[in-house]
Specification:
The chain contains 8 helices and 16 strands. The mean pLDDT is 90. The chain is α+β, with helices and mostly antiparallel strands and 320 residues long.
């Protein structure tokens, strides 16, 4: 890998993460017992499904969006009022408040989408859906996609621990489920879609602004794994003690390969896929950035921010 810059079409991360003593994602309570989120895992060779602890992709996406919001404010990225307030409707908040978002010239979906992408970086990166006056529905799929974080069968354990909440009267007993183990995590970033307006097949913001948004998105991904916000962190702050994996980047119209660490040979297969795709589509179509620790993961994100450039194309993208 050289220090040369390259255009980025898509980015994928496949990683094996160790979290000790966490209770990040609960599904509710049953009596005085908290219920942690769990998933069935069914793999080749299993005689029956495994029931494992996990953290939903919704939780990871919300954590990442929180970090992106802070970064966007720090970096003075374009934000609507809803985006600035971290309102769940984002640009929809502004429209509900009858703010002057659109001009008389913005009559069709292309013009209105163009204005939204220019005004709000969070709406651009995280997606939105809103119905505007006249019955038109403006929508945008998120540029970043998270899979559920799931424990590796036989390598994750959930236990219930007794606690008591003391008050002015009698203590209230309750049980908290706390989990430890190795977890598989995957995510994908469609970097070519940053600032892209699918209704007129062009970009609504210039390359410099798209680069700022790409860098902010990458930084928010780093922060998501550095600080996984979630349930019961006040007394069950996770102990993150291991993170390994592969970041893949595609520089042409080709998916960045991703494979779940639920498969033991995931890293070797990803590199093999990268070699195959480079033979099929040309040298340097796929770049691989390996990491064996959280510190190395941060270094690889830093390298990507230094080298990755916004994708540019004069041809239509078949999306949305």
């Amino acid at each position: 890998m050289t220090n040369q810059q390259f255009p980025v079409y898509s980015i994928s991360i496949s990683g094996l993460l160790s979290w000790q003593l966490h209770a990040l994602n609960n599904e509710g309570n049953e009596g005085n017992q908290s219920l942690t989120r769990r998933y069935y895992i069914i793999q080749k060779g299993m005689s029956e499904p495994e029931y494992v602890n996990g953290v939903s992709g919704d939780m990871l996406k919300h954590i990442q969006a929180e970090h992106l919001h802070r970064i966007a404010i720090q970096e003075a990225l374009a934000l609507s009022e809803g985006g600035r307030q971290f309102h769940p409707n984002r640009i929809g908040y502004d429209l509900d408040k009858d703010q002057a978002i659109f001009t008389e010239a913005d009559k069709d979906l292309a013009g209105k989408t163009n204005r939204v992408l220019q005004l709000c970086s969070i709406s651009d990166l995280e997606g939105f859906m809103v119905t505007v006056k006249g019955g038109q529905t403006l929508k945008r799929e998120s540029a970043i996609e998270f899979g559920a974080v799931v424990g590796l069968p036989t390598l994750v354990k959930t236990q219930s621990y007794f606690h008591a909440k003391y008050g002015p009267d009698n203590p209230t007993p309750y049980n908290v489920q706390v989990s430890s183990g190795l977890y598989a995590t995957v995510l994908n970033i469609e970097a070519f879609r940053i600032g892209y307006n699918p209704h007129n097949f062009s970009y609504s913001i210039d390359a410099a602004e798209r680069k700022k948004r790409l860098d902010a998105l990458l930084k928010s991904v780093l922060y998501t794994y550095l600080q996984p916000n979630g349930a019961k962190r006040n007394t069950n702050l996770p102990h993150p003690d291991y993170f390994e994996g592969v970041i893949t980047v595609s520089t042409r119209r080709c998916p960045a390969p991703m494979l779940s660490p639920l498969e033991e040979s995931y890293s070797r297969q990803i590199h093999s896929l990268a070699d195959t795709l480079n033979h099929l589509n040309g040298a340097d179509t796929i770049h691989c950035f390996d990491f064996e620790t959280m510190a190395q993961f941060a270094e690889q994100i830093q390298t990507l921010i230094a080298q990755a450039q916004p994708w540019e194309s004069d041809h239509a993208e078949a999306i949305e």
